[in-house]
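User: Predict the complex with zinc ion.
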Amino acid sequence: MTLLHGRERIPLDIGNYQRNLLKGQKPTAATLVKMRSGYYIDIQVKSEAPDTIETDKVIGVDLGITDLAVTSEGETYSGSEIKTVRDHFAQLRTDLQRKASKGTRSTRRRCRQLLKRLSGKEQRFQRWVNHGISKSIVQRAIETESAIALEDLSGIRQTSNRRIKSLHKWAFYQLKEYVSYKALGAGIPVILVEPAYTSKTCHQCHHIGDRNGKVFSCHSCGWGGDADYNGAKNIADLGAAVNQPGGPGLFCLIEAEKIPGLQKAPLFRGG
Ligand SMILES: [Zn+2]
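Assistant: Here is the predicted structure with zinc ion placed in the model:
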């Protein structure tokens, strides 16, 4: 490392896992990060993703708020745990802000420091949850030799609170990123589908139905059930259409996105 007084060698205090990741690699960049507990180094290495598997099976994943993720196989990853933690942090934040507004200058400074630390804790918890969910989804795709289909943009429909909205947007984005890179690393194709209609269409008969909170009901074929599961089924169907062009005949093609490894699904026409 180049310091003010010249270059210095600093040994890395890392475990076998990190050592293996670095073995035989040429780092392309490194960033030194100062944390409360010491200095950390982020080392960037480039690795070639394996060839993606060929499959016509697709697992659809619907990202939501009440349930963070629901798959077309009926697997549900509840958001209740993260909501509890988030509510707890929100309460602490309110208390600290109230205290800061009444306190002396040093109290205010102390509160500001605490607030900053809280937001770091909340983000780390979010990351940990998203790593767990994405790992489990990709593992399932490996076991069943399936591709994974996700919505291109997640509909944030259940809240109008702006702060919560941006938090959710970030959480969705992060979960999507984690699924994508874990899948690419495992040779699992990831397909992004247009979100239009995935939540309003009945996965059984493709008619537009009613969504009432977590419940979807179709007046055409009578199917009723979990709205996110219905969405995940539609996402899986849309994703499958990419792998069998012209298959179900319910789709029209739109321009494929130019992200290596990612394919874009046709837009669902409905009806
Ligand atoms: Zn129906």
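The chain has a mean pLDDT of 82.
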